[in-house]
Amino acid sequence: MNRAFNRKKDKSWMHTPEALAKHYIPYNAKFLGNTEVEAPKGTEVVKDAVRKLKFQRHIKKSEGQKIPKVELQISIYGVKILDPKTKDMEHNCQLHRISFCADDKTDKRIFTFICKDSESNKHLCYVFDSEKCAEEITLTIGQAFDLAYKKFLESGGKDVETRKQIGGLQKRIQELETENAELKKQLQDLEEQLMIAHVPPVGSISTKPQSTDIFDMVPFSPVTPLVPVPASNGCPPPPPTTLPPDISKDLFGAEPFDPFTCGAADFPPDIQSKLDEMQEGFKMGLTLEGTVFSLDPLDGRC
């Protein structure tokens, strides 16, 4: 049952779209941990994961270890899991990778979601204790997913084929830039060899005009730097400055990949693979459920 979208028809969402698109909704919870599961969806899948992690926490509790507290930040960009004191990010679960979300309708504390790991591509089930707001958190994730999917369709998801062509052109431009740099280096080496060959003997004066290259240009000499030509108003132009390259931008000055920003220059050459992955994740959809996870003795307060 896709309760998120059924709930949306019956009752308005809990948060404004601006709150999730421009900011984030924070929640405090205890993090029982995550564990690998075999499927991206299913009530029984998350039930087994909850029982496993609760059992592990029960053992750790008997050894004197406390369940770590975390802060959840939910937005259209994903669910971030942070240390509440240092704000260091422990996990970043992108929404298109989250396929299943469920809360425990018996005690209103335990909730869980399944997310595909970005590096290993394994499905991991995350389990939390949220102090009686499990359903609210799952609905917030559902709303964020709904907004993210709509924005994806409005931007990058509309014209995937166009962006594929743009990515190919950008890659070709990068190859040509590299080839051009190599040709410039070869040309400079040839000019230096010509200059050495035309150096007159010591003490002799040569009236021969200065040699030019194949383009009828005076060869570049690192010994005699170019002198800037004064501006027409008599004021010399400012000295050229060399700025360090911005590592946060690509070869064309584009910002890091943002799936919700429309514009050809904003996407790196590998955009197509990212868009394909997002399309696949959003197409699978997010399923929200309210269920009974477990009624065994380990279900006491963590």
TrEMBL record:
<dbReference type="Pfam" id="PF00640">
    <property type="entry name" value="PID"/>
</dbReference>
<dbReference type="InterPro" id="IPR006020">
    <property type="entry name" value="PTB/PI_dom"/>
</dbReference>
<dbReference type="InterPro" id="IPR051133">
    <property type="entry name" value="Adapter_Engulfment-Domain"/>
</dbReference>
<feature type="domain" description="PID">
    <location>
        <begin position="27"/>
        <end position="155"/>
    </location>
</feature>
<comment type="similarity">
    <text>Belongs to the ced-6 family.</text>
</comment>
<dbReference type="GO" id="GO:0005737">
    <property type="term" value="C:cytoplasm"/>
</dbReference>
<dbReference type="InterPro" id="IPR011993">
    <property type="entry name" value="PH-like_dom_sf"/>
</dbReference>
<protein>
    <recommendedName>
        <fullName>PTB domain-containing engulfment adapter protein 1</fullName>
    </recommendedName>
</protein>
<keyword id="KW-0581">Phagocytosis</keyword>
<dbReference type="GO" id="GO:0006909">
    <property type="term" value="P:phagocytosis"/>
</dbReference>
<keyword id="KW-0175">Coiled coil</keyword>
<keyword id="KW-0963">Cytoplasm</keyword>
<feature type="coiled-coil region">
    <location>
        <begin position="166"/>
        <end position="193"/>
    </location>
</feature>
